[in-house]
Structure formats: C-alpha cells, structure tokens
Amino acid sequence: MEVVRKSKYGDEVRDKAKTLYLSGLTPKEIAQKLDINGTRTVYNWINKDGWNELLSKFDLEKQLEQRILLLTHRDMKKPNELDEIDRLIANLIKLQDANTRIQKEKLSIKEREANLDKGYCPAERKDQVHSSGKKKSGRKRKNDVPGIDDPRWQQWIDSLYSYQKIHFDARHLKERWTLKSRQIGFTFEAAGEALYVAVETGKNQTFLSASKAQSLVFRSYITQLAEKYFGIELQGNPIKLPNGAELRFIGTNRNTAQSYSSDLYIDEACWIPKFEGIYETAGAMGTLKDRRITVFSTPSTRSHGAYRVWSGAYWKQGNKDRADIPFPSKETLRKYPQLCPDKKWRYVVTLQDAVDGGNPNIDVDDLKERCGEAAYAYLYDAEFMDEADSIFTLSALTKCIKEDMWSDVDLSAQRPIGDHPVAIGYDPARTGDLARCYVLAMPLKKGDPFRVIEEFEYRGFHWSWQAEQIQNLTTRYNVQHIGVDCSGIGSGVGEMIKAFFPQVMLISYTQQSKQSLVLKVMDLVSTSRIKWPAEYTSIAPSFLAIKRKQTGHGTMTFAAERTEETGHADSFFAIAHAVACEGLNVAMQRTSTIRVNL
C-alpha cells in the first residue's frame, strides 16, 4: 500500500510563499518570514509548482529591478542587504556588457565582410585585454582607484554605446543638458563618468536626484564599476578617494545641496518639484570656473521649471536683446549636440536613437503597442507634455510625490503595513496584454491622505493568475475595498475576485461613472490627499494623460475612454478604482472599518 505523505504546510502558506517569491524574496527570506522549517521546502515548491516558469515570463532586467526596488525601500538596511543591492547592480552591468559585446561582434563581422577598416579593435582582443586587466592582487584595496592612464578605464569606455560616448566626450564642458528617453543607460554612463573625472581632476562630485533610492542606484553603479574593472571595494558615503575627491549622493534638499564646491549631476530634473529654486541654489556648487553642471532627464510638462531652462526662456527672461535669439530644434539636437546661445550644451536622445546607437535591449515596436502614440511621445521620444488640455497640473502632482517609502511600511514583511486598512485598484490589460494593480493605505481620519504602498504590472498572464495575485494580497493586507473595471475584458477577473471577496466594487464604465472617478481623483490631487513614492514614476505621466474634451453636443467631458489609444493611463484608472471606496462627499462617509481575511 502506497503511503502519501501530506505536507504540514497548508495551501495558504504555500500561496503566500509563491507571492513572496514572485515579488523578489529569496527562499531563505521566505522561510524566515513564514516560519518554514528550512529552505529545502521552499525550493521543492519552486521546482514542483514551476514558479520559475512564471518568473521567467518577466524580463530579466525587470526581475533585477524589482528586487533592487524591494531592497531600497527597506529602512535601516543591513550590510548584507547593501551588498546584495551592489551584486544586483553588478548583474545589470554584466547583462549590459554582454549585450554590448554581442552587438560589437556583429558589427565587426559586418565590417570585415565589407572590407571596411575603421581602426576598431576586434571584440575578441578587447575581451582578452579585459580578462588580463581584471587580475586582482592578493587583497582588495579600498578606494584606491587607478589613474586614467590605466588601460582598464579604456575598457569601460569601450563598453558604452555611441550615444553614451557622445555625452562622455563632452564631459569637460561647463554645463550640459540632455533630454532623453527612459531606460537607455544614462545613469550608468554618468556614474562612471563622475568617478573618471574625480580620479582625473581630484574634484568633488555630487549627485542630486529626485529620490534617495535613485542616489543609491548611482552609488551602486560606481562601486560595481570599481569592483568589475579594478578589483577595488569602494566604501563610505561620501566615497573619499586618495586624491581628496569626494563623491556625495543626496536628495533634493537645497540647503544640503549648496554646501559643497563640486561638479554637480542632476538626475530627472524635469520631475523635481520647485526645480528653479533648487537649480539656482545647487548651481552655486559650480560657481568656480572649473566646476561642471550636468543635467539629464526624461521630459515632463512645459509648465515645469526645467522646461524654461531647456527652451531658453529662463535665459531670455527680462532681456530684450535676447528675446528673438533662436535655439536649436529637437531634431537638430538629436543629430548635432551643441553649445547653445546660453552657453549650455544640449543633446537629445530618443529611444530610436538608442537603438540606432547600438543598444540591443530595446523593442521599439512592442513599446509603441503598449503605450499608444501620445504616451510613447513623452516617455520615449523626448517630447514635453502640454498641460493645456490636461485636468491635472504637474505642480499639483509633484505635491503628491513623497521622496521615499513611509517608515511604517515594510514591503518584505508578511504584513507590510500591519492591520492598517487598504484599498486595491485593478485596471485590466488593453494594450500589449498589460494590466496594473495598486495597493493604497486608506486614511484613518478625516483629512489624512491615501498612500500608494505597492504597484504591480501583469503582462502575459491568464486572468485566473491575475485574480490569484489579488487574492494573495488579501492575505498580506487588511483589505477593505477592491475596485475593478468590469466593462470589458476585466469582467473575467472581476467575477473571479467576487468569489473570494464578495464586496468587490465592479465598475461598469458609463459617462457618469467615468466622470465620478475622475472628479474624485481631481479632488484628492487638489487637496494633496493622495501620496505616492517618487520611485513609482509611471503615476504622474498617467495622470497627465487625462484630458478635457468637448462632446459633439458641446458639453465638456474627459478623454478617458477605455480604449487602446488611452491604455497608457492605466496607472490613473487603477488608482481611481481604489480611491472610489471613499466617494465624493467625504464629510458624509463613515470612519469605521471592518476586518477581513485576517
């Protein structure tokens, strides 16, 4: 008689373990958080249930970014967690290097076949030099980065794509401004460049970012470059080099920013609140004639202070002699980066430019399908948004952005925010088979804000899997509300959710329901009663995509139809579905909550 041994862990524990694994936790962390006796059990579940097959549907870079984001959100990071962040960044760099080598080998083969001789060093020989250059001494040196005449620096430069090299070659200019697409490796280049210049000149380097988490990414790129190419472990914050140069990583505190004489790097400038004040104050770092200012960003709106600098309006203001002086167009700056009348060097890099510049990691057609034409223009084609028809202003949205995650939230914990009530909003896929889900902490008293805790992107998964992920959230959070659009293909997920959460709000889109959702979010934004961490960069552009529109009958409505053309507003709608739990008349809402799924 065959004896079937039953696991002492129930399906609920197993489902929680799967959710944690897909969200980026290691088997060891899962075992500790769920009180599982050893990691072998978790590994058995992974292999038996095919969790890695689910995980493999995510892009590799997406998996690494998800784990990095999870770790950077943790307060009081342990040394091993900081080490893991560095290792993850190292893997991203290795992935980029590998793709670069493959691309260069392909180009080299084409050149040889065409009998071209442009003086390029064969990729095989570069790899041999790289391997010999990485020989390490008996023990790692700390912060003793070799001089720029060391051939290993050239190996790093050779790893850059052509558009990154253009920026690097302009490093000696007083002030550089680059308008760029998302996800093309500019932070990687800027981090390496800053270390190079610090070694070359002994000048301090300061990184001013829209969030502290972004500063951590800067620092990790730098430490991994030193480890990868020189076998050196960089330590400290600031990082102090033997020649006296210091590399500092700060947020957007203008008082901190003005304290140093330094070269200055400003990342995502077009998304920094009150930018002009910070730019003027932090720019004091570059007062001395040998200090440089480097600014690069994806575009936001034409009302942002950074646009005034980019367009030349900041330089022309109050000076009649400058009023009619033209500045180069975007298309000109894509082909010919140059010094402009205000003595700032400008450069534009679109996603297509990155592909043409040798980056093999981008699928332009896929992104165009997922985003829609309008969203693609400002996310990847370096186009500023016009707020004229938008129901939101960037200045109002930036007041809703918090630099870091809240101190009472630990996304790696079994109960990330304890028994605090939360609302969940789900927006089904419309373009590129993409869906979004947000978890928001609900206000406990009148006047408190909704707080975005977690965001999820589901792509390529069946409805039942997506419903299962939402069900898993009900075991991690004290869920009071789930809002789902059921007017189209979301009906399948909605019905599945109803089976385990009967009080789910199934939203059928009509002119009236759409207007109510938009008006509710408008009210929250105008009173700053909704907040989200700066790392969730898709939220603000999604809000700005909601436009005013006149109907054929002459009445005003909102261009928020649920179609492929407006699918890029999925973050807005998912959040709108979550905050629908409160209703428009807040004064009449009850303040008590119920406890479910505990």
Automatic annotation (TrEMBL):
Compositional bias per record (Basic residues), positions renumbered to this chain: 132-142
Coiled-coil spans in chain: 85-115
**InterPro entries for the chain:** ATPase_terminase-su_N, Homeodomain-like_sf, P-loop_NTPase, Terminase_6C
**Pfam families, sorted:** Terminase_5 (PF06056), Terminase_6C (PF17289), Terminase_6N (PF03237)
Q: Which UniProt keywords apply?
A: Coiled coil, Viral release from host cell
Where is each Terminase ATPase subunit N-terminal domain found?
12-69
Start and end residues of each stretch annotated as Disordered: 120-147
Q: Show where the Terminase large subunit gp17-like C-terminal domain sits.
A: 424-579
Name this polypeptide is given: Terminase
